[in-house]
Amino acid sequence: MSEKHILFVLKEEEPWKLSPEALKLNPAGELPIFVFDGNVISGNNGICEFLEEVHPDEPLINGDARHRAEVRRLTEWFDNKFYREVYRNIVIEKVFRRFVSGAAPDSKILKVGFNNLNFHMEYLDWLCETRKFLSGDEYSLADISAAAQLSIIDYLGDVPWEGYKNAKIWYSKIKSRPSFKEILKDGIKGILPSKHYSNLDF
Question: What pTM, to 2 d.p., does this model score?
Fold first, then answer.
């Protein structure tokens, strides 16, 4: 919405303990939830596709049919594959478990997450070596999806940027985008961000 210059108000929710209001809006009990003129739209894909249709200026699923397919492919890669193989094994263990049960993260699960992270960083670095942005020459939803997943892992200080210079340069560009200004101001109660987290140049 920031990239499309749409005014909006954010409401904070704890994913591990949604409010009754959020559950009423989306009985599936999942975020994000978008309320627009009395309409309720849930899920990343549904919300983004809706915004593309009603606000076609500054398109984020852009280019010709083949390029739009690539944007959607990479968006799905990070929203699903990266989430399942990396985010869930690191962030759920280090953050969610702390607030849900007060338990320490499982080191075996973390190890799987970190191993998978290196695989995904190699792919990300290769994409950034061959393209200006992830899907091509234009900034797209794929960049937002990838950077959103990485941002909280970077907040925790767990992204090995030094080994992936192309990905690091790409992420530095993303940090200066309108859609990331507010994200870089976010915090997690009781967990301090890495020193470089909000530094645009690391």
Answer: 0.91
> 65-185, which class in CATH?
mainly alpha
Q: Strand pairing partners for 14?
A: 17
Categorize the per-residue pLDDT at 38 as very low, low, confident or very high, splitting at 50, 70 and 90: confident
Domain ranges in the chain with CATH number 1.20.1050.10: 65-185
Task: Return the CATH fold of 1-58.
Answer: Glutaredoxin (3.40.30)
DSSP per-residue codes, 80-103: IIIIIIIIIIIIIIIIIHHHHT-P
**Token code pair at residue 196:** 């470089």
Quick: pLDDT tens for 54-68: 999 999 999 999 999
Q: For residues 135 and 70, is the Cβ–Cβ distance under 8 A?
A: yes
Terminal Cα-to-Cα distance of the chain (whole angstroms):
25
Under DSSP, is residue 42 helix (H, G, I), strand (E, B) or coil? Answer: strand
d(CA 113, CA 37): 40
Residues 6 or more apart whose CB falls under 8 angstroms from that of 85 comprise 113, 116, 119, 120
Q: Which amino acid is at 177?
A: R
Q: What is the pLDDT of residue 182?
A: 83
